[in-house]
Amino acid sequence: MKPTDLSRxxxxxxxxxxxxxxxxxxxxxxxxxxxxxxxxxxxxxxxTGPYPVGTVSLRLVDRARTDxxxxxxxxxxxxxxxxxxxxxxxxxRPALQLPPGVAAVWQRLVETKEEFSxxxxxxxxxxxxxxxxxxxxxxxxxxxxxVVLYSPGRNVPRGFGTVLAEELAGRGHLVVxxxxxxxxxxxxFPDGRVATVQDATEKATLRALVDVxxxxxxxxxxxxxxxxxxxxxxGDRRAQPLPPGLAGCADLSRIGMFGxxxxxxxxxxxxHDDPRILAxxxxxxxxxxxxxxxxxxxxxxxxxxxLLLNSVLGNHRDDVLATLWHNLRGWRxxxxxxxxxxxxxxxxQAQVPRLVSAGxxxxxxxxxxxxxxxxRRSLRAQRAYxxxxxxxxxxxxxxxxxxxxxxxxxxxxxxxxxxxxxxxSDRSRVPARRHPAGASKTRRISxxx
Length: 449
Prior knowledge:
alpha/beta, ten-stranded mixed sheet, 11 helices, 12 strands
């Protein structure tokens, strides 16, 4: 099979990508570290905005909803991370990218899954530090901070959206990332419990997953309203320490959302269902069509701004995005990096090259995960376009031509059929995808294990 055919097959099931997850209940093979290997440590690129960044993680309990993935009638329990512009203060050690329990599960997975093939003991995922200081005082700004929600890809911990979240926070946004419990490979709670993937989520349809995710997002929005009033957002009578200035800092009249893979479909459906969300961005997530549509947004469309950022796997000319694209009635853009892989839109864009250079990962695994794009250019483009999108549609700032068409500052990014509410289309010469010989025009959503 040619690499392009493989890419198209994967994009046909783009929302179903479960690249790093084992089957629920299946034991993880334990790799044996070698004594002669020093584990590679990884860093994340610092944000480029004018403000330092603070962070806090919160446990939220929805007692009005039972967890749909558990047989016992247990309240739905979530973990979220908030990033925000912080007041300058004494230097303190920044927060970890992943909590210890999540890092341990992730490390075992990438050492035993063929897609990564990380050498046993070759990387220390628990050591990665971010650029955000835990519980730093919030920098209050006139008018409040616009809010941006983040939903990660299937099975991927919320911590792998740190680079883009810190970038938005450093530019003046309050960013809220949600772990969708029992679907993420691991979620660690403040008492040390680690919730892992449930069999029910592995067997669920993509529409069922998105429905639960949207309910999670809407609950988080409700708790942000509680937090903004100065009350405890946890909902379980156990007060959580909050950074100084967090209560009342958000402007809840300016809310946006973005997500990666199935998180992008979640962003689309959440904006469809909840009028509080004014703008949304989908990072390389397909939404299906017809009976395989992940939600009503596909046929109903949207009348608010929507941004598609795609990889080599496809664009809105593919069946799994075409119907939604046709039904978008507001501002819209589809940008594509043809040299990027699906996971280029996560922190793995910065981390996989380090693993390869350290000899912790075979070099041939890089293309399947993040593509051949230059990591620095890729991250620079992602930051520019995502932050620019929210600056324009939440902050009311001019785009200064950023979304008019291709830019020499971002040579890897193509504009695909700008169309409605934009300037002249078809400026990027991105070819339409052809169906492989013998393939059905309605492509089935598959899961890569």
